[in-house]
Amino acid sequence: MLAVLMIFGLALVMNVGSVSAANTTNTTVQSHTTVQSTVTTSKNVTTTVKKTTTKKVATNSYGLTTAQIKDGLNRAQTFYNKNNRLPNYVSYGTTKIPIASFQKILTAYGLKIVVKTYANGWVTVKNLVYDHQDTSYTCGPSSLKMELSDYGLSLNEMTLASYSSSNSNVGTTHSGLINAVKKVNSIYGTKLSAWDSKFSSVGWAGLYKYISTNHPVILHIRSFLNPNTSGHYVVLMGLNMNSGLAKIADPSYGYRTLSFNALLTRMNWVVSTGRTTKPVIFVK
């Protein structure tokens, strides 16, 4: 009997030992699995960070710091807000980064230039009556005639040329056009004001807002017919802020559609050649 009890006790101890060993083994495996998972996860994170860093370095070949990139973004955004177009490049000292390359850098750093969209697309002046200039030097009075047609006035071009003191030697000056508006006020009882402005003072967004009130704007630009020697007056009558296009009534040609860049280049030409510093003329 004693022998049986000893055998039974020995078997019980062996079973308990087996269970303990099994549990210990299972715990170790689970712990090992958890550790392995953690290591794998850490490896993935490290890989992701490494790839992102590599992408930034490859894109940012100019070696810009984050602070420099944000500074460039602020300058580019300010330019866009003022001119309603992206700059051609972003400068850092003597280094000029093309805007397309700079935008890739911004994207790599999770940044971007905020570009506006305009739901209505084109905004155009509805009441303007086109006029073709009578002489080679009266594009100014012809443009003023179109401008005044928006206010219901139908005046003779050569009469306006007389009011503006236009002549074949100098054409028409800004002060001449402004004085012509004052003359019209005194004769017809209108209460219009006329003034000129730098483009930088209004920008495309400002012109868009102005034309949205159904009023055109006279622009002093580089001539299409004599681009090397002459300035020319046209009437800005429409803008599309989404596509960056402008419609003008050209008294020497008819209606034209130009890109913002092309039209601004023509305005900048009359400024750079000393003809005026204020190529935008308002009548209201």
UniProtKB/TrEMBL annotation:
From which organism does this entry originate? Methanobacterium lacus (strain AL-21)
A Gene Ontology MF term for this entry? peptidase activity
Q: Which residues form a coiled coil?
A: none
The record's section on PROSITE patterns has: PEPTIDASE_C39
Superkingdom to which the source organism belongs:
Archaea
Q: Which residues form the Peptidase C39 domain?
A: 133-274
Name the GO terms of the biological process aspect. Answer: proteolysis
Q: What is this protein called?
A: Pseudomurein-binding repeat-containing protein
GO CC terms in record = membrane
What InterPro entries does the database record attribute to this sequence? Peptidase_C39, Peptidase_C39-like, Pseudomurein-binding_repeat
